[in-house]
Structure formats: C-alpha cells, structure tokens
C-alpha cells in the first residue's frame, strides 16, 4: 500500500511539474498580468484620451482592434488597425491614396499607444520573447528585470526594438521600463510611473518619459544613467477619461 501511495504521489508530482513548462520570465509576467487586470483585458473594450486624440482598444489572444479618432484641417479622421490591416477614413470616406510608407507610420503610431496603455497584457503575444535578467534594485526596492524582444514574423515593422521591464519582486508592479527603437531615427527611452488609475478592474499607469543625452547607448545602460540622475524629462505620458466597458458574452 505504501509503495502504491508513493508511486501515485511521485507520478502526480511529475505530471504537475511537467505541465508547468513556463520559464521564470513567463511566470513573472503572468503574475503581473493578473495583478493588472487578468481576464478583464480580453473581456472589455477600453476607451481613453491621449494628447487630444480618442482611442478605443479591444484585444484578445488572437484578435485586436485599435481605433483612434481626431479632427484636423481635413475633417474628422478615424484610423482603424486590426488583424486585417490599417484603414483611414476622413468624414466617413475611406482614403485609398495612402502610400505604404504612411500606412506604416500611422500603424506604428496607433499600435505604440495601444501597446503602452495595455501593459503588461501584450507581453504574452506569440511574437514576444521574454528573458529574465535576474534581480536588481532601485531606490531600495527589489525588482525582477525582464528583457523583451520580438520575432521578425508577427513582431511588426519595429520587431528589432528591445524592452526592459522592472517588475516588483513583492508586488509584481512595473514601476520602470526602458526601450530602444530604430524607426524614425532611433533612440532609447526610460519611463518611470508617475500616477496610477484603476478603472473597471484594470490598472492604468501614467509615466514620465526620460531620455539620455547620448541616445546611442544600449538599453541595458538606462538604469545606471537613471540612478546617476543623467536622464532628462522629455514628456509626460498621461491617459485621460478612461472607460472600461465589459463585452457582451
């Protein structure tokens, strides 16, 4: 009987451990997503204003739809980016004369705002590669440092961007992030959380957007520059008038 029990216990333990094949980085990110909103993300439509532009976002594991709306000298502009591609309309009429270059620019712009607003939810996209760089410390707080890169296929035109996320070892909150980018001249940035809003069960964060004097430095250098006070404030990233609407099932 003891042998049967021991065999059953060991078999169950083996099955349990083999089922969870996630890496350490994946476990850390999964916990952060739960803390920030978990399943609420994929069951909600989110609206907010950013720099006088209205955004509407919907995203699940396999579908997404990002909309931004604003008015300019041409009229009422609506940009739509989803699994099928990018479409711009002005006063309700589709614009068919956009070049591939401008389609790319508009798509990157819409996607960038949606990506940051929905962090850390998008870090589980299939095109995302996550690596744990171990534990670090800022201002006496311990963080798990996660590096994120992207697959060329499915990673978008800016797939070669690199991101770092400082995720609290105790609370799983992302207090800092840094990234390098290569489009539009390239550069490197670091963001520090300034204020927090919780709406409809989702945690949204505003940021101070910081830059180094030399933007050719590696993204791994940003913590050192931050702690040395060698980053300057470039802008503030603030989401306003946030609404979270549950989707009908």
Automatic annotation (TrEMBL):
Pfam families: DUF6503 (PF20113). It comes from the Bacteria. This is Deoxyribose-phosphate aldolase. It comes from Algoriphagus chordae. The lineage of its organism: Bacteria, Pseudomonadati, Bacteroidota, Cytophagia, Cytophagales.
């Amino acid at each position: 009987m003891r042998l049967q029990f021991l065999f059953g216990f060991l078999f169950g333990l083996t099955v349990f451990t083999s089922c969870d094949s996630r890496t350490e980085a994946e476990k850390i990110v999964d916990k952060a997503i739960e803390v920030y909103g978990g399943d609420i993300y994929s069951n909600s439509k989110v609206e907010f204003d950013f720099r006088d532009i209205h955004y509407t976002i919907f995203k699940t594991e396999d579908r997404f739809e990002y909309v931004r709306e604003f008015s300019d000298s041409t009229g009422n502009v609506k940009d739509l980016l989803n699994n099928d591609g990018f479409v711009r309309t002005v006063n309700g009429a589709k614009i068919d004369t956009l070049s591939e270059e401008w389609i790319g620019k508009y798509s990157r712009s819409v996607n960038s705002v949606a990506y940051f607003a929905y962090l850390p939810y998008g870090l589980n996209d299939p095109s995302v590669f996550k690596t744990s760089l171990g534990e670090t410390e800022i201002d006496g707080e311990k963080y798990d440092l996660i590096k994120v890169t992207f697959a060329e296929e499915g990673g978008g035109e800016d797939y070669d961007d690199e991101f770092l996320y400082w995720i609290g070892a105790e609370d799983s909150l992302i207090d800092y992030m840094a990234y390098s980018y290569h489009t539009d001249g390239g550069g490197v940035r670091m963001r520090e959380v300034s204020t927090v809003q919780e709406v409809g069960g989702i945690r949204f964060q505003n940021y101070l957007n910081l830059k180094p004097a030399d933007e050719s430095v590696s993204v791994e250098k940003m913590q050192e520059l931050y702690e040395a006070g060698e980053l300057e404030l470039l802008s503030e990233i603030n989401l306003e008038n946030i609404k979270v609407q549950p989707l009908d099932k």
